[in-house]
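Teaching assistant here, posting this on the class forum so everyone can see the example we discussed in section. The complex has two components, and the goal was to see what a joint structure prediction looks like when all of them are supplied at once.
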Amino acid sequence: MKVHRQKRLGIILFIAAGLSISIALAAYALRQNISLFYTPTQVAEGEVPTGQHFRIGGMVKAGSFQSAQDSLRVEFVTTDYVSDVPIHYEGILPDLFREGQGLVAEGAMDAAGVFQASRVLAKHDENYMSQEVRAALDAAEASEMNSSPLAEQ
Amino acid sequence: MIPELGQFSLILALCLCVILGTLPLIGASRNNLLWMNLARPVTAGVFVFLAISIAILAYAFVQDDFSVQFVQQHSNLLLPTRYKVTAVWGGHEGSFLLWTFMLSGWMLAVSIYSKSMPIDFVARVLGVLGIICFAYILFMLATSNPFDRVVPLSPADGADLNSALQDIGFIIHPPTLYMGYVGFSVVFAFAMAALLSGRLDAAWARWCRPWANTAWAVLTLGIALGSWWAYYELGWGGWWAWDPVENPPLITWLFGTAMIHSLAATEKRGVFKSWTVLLAILAFAGSLLGTFITRSGLLTSVHAFASDPTRGVFILLIFGLAIGFALLLFALRAPLMKSDFGFSLLSREIFLLANNVILVVASASVLLGTLFPMVYQAITDELISIGPPYFNAIFAPLMVLLILLLGVGPICRWKKTSAQYLVMQLGRVALSSVALGVLLPLVVLLKFSVSATIASILASWICLAMLTDLVNKSANKITRLQGLKSLSLSYFGMQIAHFGVAVMLIGAAMTSNFSSEKSVLLASGESIDLGEYVFLFDGMTSVEGPNYIGDEAHIQVLRDGEFVRNLNPQRRLYVASGSPSTEMAIDAGFFRDLFITLGEAKEGGAWSMTIYIKPFIRWVWLGAIFMALGGLTAAGDKRYRRLRRRQEELLAEDLKANLQPAL
């Protein structure tokens, strides 16, 4: 029986060691790779330090889309109907990218206050909106409601 | 009228599931043969009524019956017939009907191919599956009925099937994936039946193994098909994105992989019994989690269906009840099942255990990365996302470790192996795989990268260790051929699947290290160099399909000044929904893919496009095909049938002996 128990203990220790190493590894990797999400209003209020990698979500402002004719560079403005943030991107936009529709972009703010996107996702279809975009619009609406009575006073 | 028949048939299936989920189970516990014998015919009934139901839905699609809301939302007069039929699984309601239908198909298969198992066991397995099926149909009728009508006026035309879904991948990927996913319910039911009857022995493992291997093989194929489809349809040039809806099948697959290995040890050596059962529960939980994630509206992605909170709550309820009950039963019964620990610290059992630990840890860390953003949002109300680097950072080292052990495991003997024997067998293998692994990428690709070198060393390690084992195992007969013939199918299945791991490893490592891409703006007549290829843009023409209009680019591919082939990527506009869609042009090859996606038109007839060269990408899916083939080969082993027959005779005698006093 004793040998039996030792073996069982050995196996349990083996599993425990494996688990703790991997939990440590996972926690470390997780901390390195979380990217936060901000709304245009949060960005306009300067909540995001320059150079930090994050995601931004909002609607593509109608009439803001400009595309360079001699390169793949595109510029547009994303909005939550309170604040606007200009976005620059070099590359091919997703199929569902359109003015007046929701979008999520990954990248960082540069010194000039322009969001330099490394990836653009148009995460929506006709039926529903991306959770990020909806959250951005809801937040903007809520802040409108809070701020408008103050403006009247 | 006809769609109502579909719904009626669904309700009948529900009623039959009530019978199936109660009487055979009670019969099994009270030894009532009549009630146990109900299981098979009632299962056939459930299958027939679900088949009628899904056939009627398909009929409504083909007939353009837009008074049915689901048809109206996912079809259109102009939609080609093959997509009309397959649009059945183009949305939440219909795809759930397919899912449930698949379950009834597995149930029917169990009822047919179980002639050799004792009837009380079959009754329990089918009874548990009946309960699961009952929950699914109830969910459908209560929250997502595919036969709901648009009242009072039926629309003249439908909204069209999502343009990204109008593709061959959509015809084959969802049914295969669902079939694999749902197959794990069967293994779960086997595990539950074992817990209920208290019978968890080698015979149980033998009955269970072919089903587990088949479900695993089909899930492997389903995931690979999804990856292949995403690669050529979504046009981002990758084959795995660690997207929150891709992850649940992978989580299920990893648990399933651990389970089939632990099941092997349970069958051969009677060890890890309760662990195997726990893994069966976890794999099933993974499949329910996948359903919950895609159908609750928790996420937004290509796969996610439009959100409806009541559905999420309902699925969560099914999940909680099923897993809660299963774990309760496990906690009550598992201590009764004693496993042997009769093996030393260097034995095949230990390697299988290590395999299990690594796979479960990998699965848990994918689960963590998938659920963390959702939990974080629920607690702090802040949105975050976890990108591919997290998953890669965890997954890559775990896989390296797993593959190192994979080389040793099959060579190891059960119970006890001496370290000397292993060194003797594998010392040369290790040296030569390092040499081969370093040289091969240099010679073949004339390029060097650390991770590609590690990958090719590991792939050589798998293959050479496998060859050594084959040579050893076939040496005891007069000729090699006779030796090979004496090996079992399940042994070959294992080797084929492990070879698949090596192939996939090469594919994954080479594409992620040596791919090249370029986004360019080309006017007609201009060309661009990438790697050893020249891409010459010949201009555009208009194309028209049954339900779309579009532009097609003509691009000549040249290598060393010689013509290779034309590639014609398209940009389409689907008329009914007004949604644009890009069709990639791909030149698939054994050693590399050329891949072009079309962007947009600029002034002066220039077009933006992205060109990719993806070396060895086909190997990723080829590896998956080998794995699936291995799983199916092992499932087809004569041993299971032969032993079943012997078992049957024994049981027939057993049954006679048992019944006599009752009579």
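For the discussion questions: The longest strand of chain B covers residues 533-544. The two ends of chain B are 51 Å apart (CA to CA). Think about how each of these relates to the inputs above.
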